[in-house]
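Lecture 7, part 2: worked example. A protein chain together with nicotinamide-adenine-dinucleotide.
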Amino acid sequence: MSAQNEPSFRESVDLMFSRAVALMDLPPGLEEKIRVCNATYTVRFGVRLRGGIKTFTGYRSVHSEHMEPVKGGIRFALGVNQDEVEALAALMTYKCSLVEAPFGGSKGGLCIDPREYDEHELEKITRRFAYELAKRDLIHPSQNVPAPDMGTGEREMAWIADQYARMNTTDINARACVTGKPLNAGGIAGRVEATGRGVQYALREFFRDPEGMKKAGLTGKLSGKRVIVQGLGNVGYHAAKFLQDEDGSVITGIIERDGALVNAKGLDVDAVRNWIAEHGGVKGYADATYVEDGSKVLEEECDILIPAALEAVINLGNAERVKAPLIIEAANGPVTAGADEILRKKGTVIIPDMYANAGGVTVSYFEWVKNLSHIRFGRMQRRQEEARHQLVVDELEGLSDVMGEKWSLGDGFKEKYLRGADELELVRSGLDDTMRIAYQAMRDVWHGRDDVEDLRTAAYLVSIDKVAASYRAKGL
Ligand code: NAD
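Predicted complex, written out as structure tokens:
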């Protein structure tokens, strides 16, 4: 089949949704209610720039308000369009439900190439977009809470938070209007790394599932596994770095906008990232083979493929040639519905986007709670925890006197044991717990039901079940 037969991103999400609900017993009409996108707001606004007025188009889509606020990132990219924003908003509904973040799904986007503007211009544009959304309650601590996505990060979130605060001067919870802010503007430790960290935790949990590993034809541990990653942005960089530094995986390929780097012995993720920052792309990096048509590297031999850039990169045109036995969708929608079918038939295991990249929204949830409670996690209990641990250490070491042989606990142990958890440790622990529990829920459906052949369908079943339950509880 040619790429022309490829459904749009939103159609792809709908097809995957429909495949799952066909296995459920939902009351008539509820399936349609859950599937459809409630509303999409399109805004066009002008900003005075470089001696003229430039008009921009932006969107904010609300997929489901079964829980409020609704949540979802804001993307800055030239390809942003209504179809894409609606698909991403739908994925947010399912994602939040799967990881039990108490939000409905939303998403926003602005058609812009942020690299074409300097910081001051981008601030003007972002503030104006935020103003347009905030005045319609499409940015609001209790109704709609954006976060970073492609092309946006802490800086943009800080502008949005400040813009909202200027418009709502008496709102004590103003900071909770957006997540992914820098620490000094109400952010939370560990949010920047959260999505990549979640990818790492997801893989670790998958590697603890012998039946899942068997289905993927993999054995052993993450250590030594060959990984190819597409997109060395926020998500791809953190995922690749943590897998390399902490799990001993070997990053054999990195695919970026201008081509790919390949090295069977492993690429140094930080060195490549620094090279890109300095030179604008991967080309010219010394310690690897450069491949001009980067997408070809998606088809290289490896153990784990991590698409972490764009949607639809694995499609009807290349799915048959993708060799990785395990794909983890760090990006949203990187595998089209048609490619998904081809890969399923080949026995490729896909850890689906709605689970794989849920680390971002999970830590965003923690940030939102922190903003509403106006206190840093760990502030009340950390020293008390340390004091109690010290009591145990003193008591144990005191026993050595009683026993007549003087010994003390190892310094390494004491250092680790005595330290009370700070915010970063608590965030990582909460994220790890969330990723494990969500995986286990999918795993039970995947291995436990004969009519469920893949993790994506399992993810939809777990997630839609919860959305349906909350509609039922409302009497719908
Ligand atoms: P980002 O802008 O930080 O990084 C994207 C990277 O992809 C950049 O390095 C860019 O150069 C690269 N890229 C762009 N076009 C490419 C191409 N054609 N081939 C190869 N590389 C290309 O964005 P991000 O925040 O890392 O988001 C990446 C994906 O992860 C998106 O699908 C996004 O929706 C998803 N996601 C992000 C978050 C988050 O917290 N940031 C959370 C959940 C999901």
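The longest strand covers residues 52-64. The CA atoms of residues 243 and 249 lie 5 Å apart. Keep this in mind for problem set question 3.
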